[in-house]
Design brief:
The protein is α+β, with helices and mostly antiparallel strands and 174 residues long. The protein is 32% helix and 25% strand. The chain has a single domain, classed as Alpha-Beta Plaits (2-Layer Sandwich), CATH 3.30.70.560.
Length: 174
């Protein structure tokens, strides 16, 4: 009798500030689905000011939940493959990017490796992650026991509209 593995819930942060950023985010979700991730929830899309290197366009950000049987390391690899396929070029830390996909949580796992640290080490500092995370995973946000840091955010596309676009592209959630 085989052992049935349980899928893990993984929360991913998506961001873009080059080209058609909203389309880039939505293409990334579709690409992740095609990579074998089961998209279970999506947040609204928010427009936010850049942090770190501020001489660049504002970012569009969102958080999604996926279910997967992939290991955390394979999730990282597949996210980076999607970024590369969609045109991500790594030139400047915190610089402009066509697409950025960060792993926020992989189940309840705590990992500290050179290439992967979970939960994401800077998520508590980033309103552009915390606000959409709170929208789709209040329990994960409450576990952090923090206040959302001050950062200008503007709701650009509501969750229902993101879901409608994805449904039109063959993705349906719960």
């Amino acid at each position: 009798m085989g052992v049935k593995m349980k899928a893990e819930t993984v929360y991913l942060s998506l961001g873009s500030n080059m080209g058609n950023s909203i389309e880039n985010l939505l293409q990334a979700i579709v690409a992740l689905d095609k990579e074998g991730f089961k998209v279970t929830e999506v947040s609204s899309i928010y427009l936010t000011e850049p942090i770190g290197f501020i001489e660049q366009p504002n970012f569009y950000n969102m958080v999604i939940a996926v279910e997967t049987l992939f290991s955390p390391q394979l999730v990282l690899q597949k996210c980076q493959e999607v970024e590369n396929r969609l045109g991500r070029v790594r030139k400047l830390r915190w610089g402009p990017r066509k697409i950025d996909i960060d792993i926020l949580f992989y189940g309840d796992r705590v990992i500290k490796e050179i290439e992967l640290e979970l939960p994401h080490p800077r998520l508590k500092e980033r309103a552009f992650v915390l606000v959409p995370l709170k929208e789709i995973a209040l329990h994960r946000f409450n576990e952090l026991d923090i206040l959302i840091p001050s950062q200008n955010l503007c709701l650009k596309i509501e969750q229902v509209d993101v879901r409608m676009f994805l449904k039109e592209h063959g993705l349906s959630m719960k």
